Amino acid sequence: MIRSRRHKNRRNFGSRRPDRQGAGRSGRSTSQRQGSRNQSTVKLDKPIVLIGLMGVGKTTIGRRLSRSIGVGFVDSDHEIEKAAQMSVAEIFDSYGEDEFRAVERRVINRLMQGKPKVIATGGGAFMNEETRALIKKEATTIWLNADIDVLVERTSRRDTRPLLKKGNPEDILRNLAAERNPIYAESTLQVRSSDGPHEIVVANMVKILRAYYKKIRKSHPPEGEKKAKES
Ligand SMILES: Nc1ncnc2c1ncn2[C@@H]1O[C@H](COP(=O)(O)OP(=O)(O)OP(=O)(O)O)[C@@H](O)[C@H]1O
Ligand SMILES: O=C(O)C1=C[C@@H](O)[C@@H](O)[C@H](O)C1
Ligand SMILES: [Mg+2]
């Protein structure tokens, strides 16, 4: 089992609670403070979990989405790297993918506790049966999707994804899309991550989220509202 270098005596290092990470003296995270300036705060009942292939924008779009709706943001790959004090590539090299997936499940479980926030996952997280069951039970999921040629270009910008080093990145992404897309399609919502400014994708996400919350709150009004209607 991977052990945190910072927490050598702690087993299951992925279980540390993150609630106040990135929080300033106000106790609110940077993205919460920035979000409150944008006047588009959305009240979340559950975390929003972003899923999709490598390079689709889970991290960069997710961070912007969190600012835009005034909630916190965390990224499971970054949290794993922080806890292990190793990069994702080093974890794959030293411990293998199975161990990475086990740590990823624990970290995502921890990240879903506490105040609802936006959580960007690694591209393979939702493919793990246990992790998927946990995410589907506890979160609203958004599948970010894009064409393969767009993903090839975006992932070519950084050499940090171990799965893409095993051969031709375009072939690997095509195979992963064929295998994963039917599973990603189990998400609550889907959004295209087309090329162009990130803000356009974020605005589209906010629109789709608002429509979804409106629909579910109409069919399942919060307890307070239900009582008011009954009386
Ligand atoms: N909608 C978009 N338009 C233009 N560029 C984008 C868009 N979304 C992401 N990018 C760019 O693509 C690259 C990869 O994005 P990002 O790291 O957010 O992907 P990811 O889904 O988190 O990937 P991974 O699963 O490997 O963590 C970054 O350079 C990012 O700025
Ligand atoms: O798609 C995947 O399986 C991965 C995506 C990255 O975010 C990392 O989580 C890791 O490189 C594996
Ligand atoms: Mg990412």
From TrEMBL:
It catalyses: shikimate + ATP = 3-phosphoshikimate + ADP + H(+). Mg(2+) binds at residue 59. GO terms for biological process: amino acid biosynthetic process; aromatic amino acid family biosynthetic process; chorismate biosynthetic process. Pathway: Metabolic intermediate biosynthesis; chorismate biosynthesis; chorismate from D-erythrose 4-phosphate and phosphoenolpyruvate: step 5/7. GO terms for molecular function: ATP binding; magnesium ion binding; shikimate kinase activity. Its EC number is 2.7.1.71. Residues 23-40 have a biased composition (Low complexity). CDD domains: SK. The keyword Protease does not apply. Residues 1-41 are annotated as: Disordered. Substrate binds at residues 77, 101, 123, 180. Its cofactor is Mg(2+). InterPro entries: P-loop_NTPase, Shikimate/glucono_kinase, Shikimate_kinase/TSH1, Shikimate_kinase_CS. It is an enzyme of class 2 (transferase). Residues 1-14 have a biased composition (Basic residues). Pfam families: SKI (PF01202). It is found in: Cytoplasm. ATP binds at residues 55-60, 161. Monomer. Belongs to the shikimate kinase family. This is Shikimate kinase. It comes from Temperatibacter marinus.
